Amino acid sequence: MVDADIYREPTPEEKKDFVDLRSKKSKNVLTKFVEKLKDAEFEYNQARRPFCYRCADLDFKKQYQDKLSQLENTYGEDIQKTITIDVDKIDLKQYANPKAFKFGKWVNNVFKSNKIRVASKKKAVVNGVATEIQYGWTYNLTCQKKGCGIALDILFRDEAAFLKDMGMEEKERDKLLLDNPEHQAMLKEQRLTAVKQQ
Ligand SMILES: [Zn+2]
User: Fold this and answer.
1) pTM over 0.85
2) 60 — pLDDT class (breaks 50, 70, 90)
3) 116 CA distance to ligand 1 centroid (A)?
4) Owning domain of residue 65
5) Is the residue at 160 inside a domain?
């Protein structure tokens, strides 16, 4: 089969005014940003903090598209030949601000479910019997900026700190933590120690 995609290298004379939108540099900006996004998502997950991958991605794509339009509109003039965005300088912290998230699952600003969390379970064998055990909760969060839904897996041992970081009031937190066996065991231990010390 004949290759239908015929592409001629521009002559050096043409190259002077040539804007190669497929240039390696432009592509590298996108690839580099996706890598940065994935790293950030992983790190925030490890720190049990919500991170809106979608918003960060959309904002970047808009910035990229704007630059692309600029290039296209000024084609042939004395302009930069490639899209330059300093990926290292992009601050992703704003997409991990706990205040930017609400508990619960919202879709396009419509509340879809009153379940702010569901049990996280894993398969296990207890006394020779295959079963599922709960190790924590998956919290449903919604990013306030664009209504993106986020599910965050929280271990029992991290739940108290997570809810506090998210700015939940103590009364609300205590109510949820009643269903956290590890937290309740820790409170019991603390009470016993306090009694012994009296
Ligand atoms: Zn978002």
Assistant:
1) no
2) very high
3) 17
4) 13-91
5) no
